[in-house]
Design a protein that fits this description.
- By secondary structure, the protein is α+β, with helices and mostly antiparallel strands.
- Helix content is 50%, strand content 30%.
- It has three helices and eight strands, in the order ααβββαβββββ.
- Strands 4-1-7-8 form a four-stranded mixed beta sheet. A four-stranded antiparallel beta sheet has the order 3-2-5-6, with no helix packed on it.
- The N and C termini lie far apart (179 Å).
Length: 230
């Protein structure tokens, strides 16, 4: 009996398994719909990632444009401040120029008024004796203690002086008061000096001429109602 039961059990184990039951149409439609939804979900996720990347790029461009606009605004404000400062400086310079011109006009008017009331002039001349072969190296003139003129004479200038030329050292309108003149010349390496005081009259041109004669300085003075040097 045991052998029979074992044989029956072996036979049962050796029998093929029953075939899997076939899926129903509803299950097939469900699987297809599920796969379609999965594909659509995957596509939606890809589009969402692309949109996020585009959003980040767009935000970066917007921030760059805002920064550029802010920089341009700052530069415009700085330029406006500089322009306003330049305009203020230009106004200040214009006002200063107007003041200087007004002062110049006042001084010119004052000078004309003084010359019109006084009409005095002083002329200082230097000449050399035409009969002597003497060479002037330099001449220094002071009027009322103030240095006025310094001359250095060349060979050509000495020739002109020996030919009768006259060197005008000073010419100016002055007040009708005494004026002290001091002239120092170097002739042939020797220094010669002379100091004199001249009284300048009103409405008169006073001439003082220094002449180098025989290595010495001599002076002469004369007056004139005209304005020419001689």
């Amino acid at each position: 009996m045991k052998r029979v039961a074992l044989a029956v059990l072996t036979a049962l184990l050796l029998l093929p398994e029953p075939a899997q039951a076939q899926e129903s149409p509803a299950q097939v439609a469900y699987q297809q719909r599920r796969e379609q939804l999965l594909r659509e979900l995957e596509q939606t996720q890809q589009q969402l990632a692309s949109l996020r990347s585009d959003r980040v790029q767009l935000a970066a461009r917007v921030e760059a444009v805002i920064a550029q606009l802010l920089e341009q605004r700052a530069q415009a404000l700085l330029m406006s401040e500089e322009q306003a400062a330049l305009q203020r400086l230009d106004s200040l310079l214009t006002a200063s120029q107007d003041n200087l011109l007004a002062q110049r006009d006042r001084f010119l008017a004052l000078g004309r008024a003084v010359r019109g009331r006084v009409g005095s002039a002083l002329v200082v001349l230097l000449r050399a004796d035409t009969t002597e072969l003497q060479n002037l190296q330099s001449a220094d003139l002071t009027v009322n203690g103030a240095p006025i003129q310094t001359r250095t004479y060349t060979v050509a200038m000495n020739q002109y002086l020996r030919m009768g030329a006259v060197d005008q050292l000073f010419r100016s309108d002055v007040l009708p008061t005494p004026h002290t003149l001091a002239l120092s010349v170097v002739v042939d390496g020797q220094t010669r000096s002379e100091t004199l005081t001249v009284n300048v009259a009103r409405e008169t041109v006073t001439y003082v001429q220094f002449a180098v004669r025989n290595g010495q300085l001599v002076s002469t003075t004369w007056t004139s109602r005209g304005t020419t040097p001689f």
